[in-house]
Amino acid sequence: MWRLYPTMSIQLNRIIPISGAKLMNQASAKTAEYHVASFIMQIDVSQDAVVRQSIEATPGAEIHADNGKGKIVFTIESDNQKHIGNYADELKYQPGVLTLAPVYHQYLEE
Known about the structure:
- With about 110 residues, this protein is of the alpha+beta class.
- It has a single domain, classed as Lrp/AsnC effector binding domain/regulation of amino acid metabolism (RAM) domain (Alpha-Beta Plaits).
- The protein is built from three helices and seven strands, in the order βββαβαββαβ.
- It has a four-stranded antiparallel beta sheet with strand order 5-6-4-7, covered by helices on one side. A three-stranded antiparallel beta sheet has the order 1-2-3, with no helix packed on it.
- The radius of gyration is 15 Å and the shape is elongated.
- The N and C termini lie far apart (about 35 Å).
């Protein structure tokens, strides 16, 4: 299974650099964009600390609520919609994540 990220492609946990990574940055350079997306994540409670660290390590991510029973609400902000999608893909495959549901996406051109 292949997944494309801004600077790499991953196949079965093997990281392979790709030369077309600059194309994503060129697209966002045309207009000033601002994206924010919110998500609800259901997790295995025993993996709470690991999942929270993964979210907090994601550029532009912020946790807004954690009920302590396996549900986390967070947002990701970025200047590129693809970055948000890529970060969401990375997070949903983290150990302990059961579901990841997008709630809202807002896009502004500046």
